[in-house]
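Anyone opening a protein record will find just a pair of labelled lines. A complete record is shown below as an example.
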Amino acid sequence: MTTETKHADLSSLRIDRASLEDPSGGSKGPWLKIIVGLIIIAAIAVGYYSISALVVANVEVQLATAAFSSPSQANAVLTASGYVVAQRKAAVASKGTGRLIFLGVEEGDRVKKGEVIARLEDDDVVATLQQMRANLTVTEAELKDAQQWLDRQKQLLGQGLTSQAEYDAAEARLNRVNASIVAAKAAVAAADVSVENTRIRAPFDGTVLLKHADVGEIVAPFAAASSSRGAVVTIADMSSLEVEADVSESNIERISANLPCEIILDAYPEQRYQGYVSKIVPTADRAKATVLVKVKFKSYDSRVLPEMSAKATFLSKAQDAAALAAKSVLTVPANCIVTRDGQQVVFMVKDGRATQVPVTVGKALGSMVEIEQGVNAGEKVIARVDERIQDGVKVVVK
C-alpha cells in the first residue's frame, strides 16, 4: 500500500444522512410503509374476488324440462320410458336365390296378405316347370295306350287267344304308367314351388316400414355374400302397436296386469293416449336390472308410429274419470320454483349464467306444479334451486 493511498481523503465514502431526510423536514419511511400496505391490501382484494369468482363458477346445477302433464298423473304409481313397438312385424325375404326384377312397394305403402310385392328372375325355374308339364302330358298319353292294351289282352285271354303272361305284362305296364303319372305330377308341383319361391308375397295385412333391396340386386335367403340382400322389405301390422317400457326390478311389484296407464309420445307431448298393462314379460334384464312391461293402447291415431319414444305413466286403479279426460297442462318439478323479492320465479341457464324468469303458477299435480305463464314446453329450468343460485351467477350444468 502506498503512502498516497493511506492519506487519501475517505470522506467521500461517507453516507450523507441528510439526503435521506424529506425536504419538508419529514422522513420517507412512513410513506413507503403506507404504499406497501396499500399494495398488499389491493393484492388481497384481487385474490379474494378471483377466488369468489372461481367458487361461483363451480356451482353445479341440474336441469329439468318443462313438459305437459295430466291431472291424473298426480296419483301416478310410477313412470317409465320406452318405445312404440309393433308386435307383429316381419322382414320379408325370398326362399329362393336370384336377381330382383320387380319391386312393387315403397315405404309407407299398405299391403294385403298374399299380395305379390316383389319378384325374382325366374326364367330357369319357369323353363323347368314347362318341361315337367310336358313330361306329364307324355305320360298321360301313354296311359291311354296302356289301358287299351290291357283291355285287348283281357278279351283275348277270355277267348283263349293269349297267354296269362301276356295279360300280366299288359297290367304291369298300366301300373308303371300310373306310377309315372304320379311322379310327373310331383315334379310339376315341385317346379311350381320353385316358381312360387321367386314371388315374394306379404305374409299379413300391414304397412311397409323399410325397403332393403332395389331392382337389380341379388336376393338370397341367408344373404351369404356381401353383395346380396337377405330381406327385401320390412312390414309391420300397424294395428298391433304397443309401448314396451323398462321398469326397475325394485318397482315391478307395483305393476299388475290390466293396470290403467297414460301414454305420452315425445313427439306429441300435448296428446295423451289411454292404455293398460297387457303383459309383464316373465324375465329380467341382468345388465339393466329391469323388467319389460308391455302397455297396450286402448285407441290411437295414425300419428303413432313404430320406434317412437314414449313415456308410460302407470296409474292407480281408483282414478277419477274427469281426471282422465282433463286437458294436459304445462308443468315443472316443484323444486324448480322459488320466491325471490315476493315473486315466484324459475332459473334458466343462458351463456353459462343463471337467468331469473318470473312465472305464474297454477295448481300442484303431485310433485309437479302447473306453469300458466313464463315458460314454454321443452325449455330447460334449473332444478333444486337454493340460495347459491342468484340472477347472473355463473353455473355449470351437471
In short: The chain has five helices and 25 strands. The first strand starts at residue 60 and ends at 65.
